[in-house]
Amino acid sequence: MEFISRFQLQLPPAGSFSANSHHAAVLIPIICRPEPTLLLTRRSNHLRKHAGQVAFPGGKADHDDRSLIDTALREAEEEVAIPASSVHVLGQLAPLDSSSGYQVTPIVGLVPADIAFHGNEEVAGLFEIPLHEALRLSRYYALDIHRGGFNHRVYLSWYESQFIWGLTAAIIRRLAQQVTL
After folding, report:
1. 16 pLDDT exceeds 80?
2. Alpha-carbon distance 112 to 130, whole Å?
3. Are 101 and 116 in contact (CB under 8 A)?
4. In Å, how far are 20, 101, 111, 123, 153 from 97, measured between CA atoms?
5. d(CA 15, CA 29)
């Protein structure tokens, strides 16, 4: 409970503006080890979008999903075999707009350490990063780029041999801004 109390999560304000009309959600799975970790995936190289990139399990909302929490839990079960019933949802971060046209809502959830994670065909590999490392703001480097007539800030980070950037890095950085360790 003391660990959970460090999360200062809240629901985003109603009617928040997004340039994207398509909705998606990702699960930020915090694995409840003696030293908590974040579970991340490396997307398969054969995928049309974001091939080979580090990502959280997640995807677009289906009409059958009752909420974006359901979307994140369904996608995590499909992609990395985390049973939805085993996730203790702590809350969500404000949505972020992705470069692929989706408004992505990150859902933060605690996952028991005894689950046997394994990826489906969309996942080339899984790895964990210690939560205290992931939430260290100094590990994220900003890169300002000009694309499509607009300026964009992209965040970059590394953990061991893993290159974490783009939306995934922005989500972890946003989480770090809202959690006190």
Report:
1. no
2. 15
3. no
4. 6, 7, 26, 22, 12
5. 27
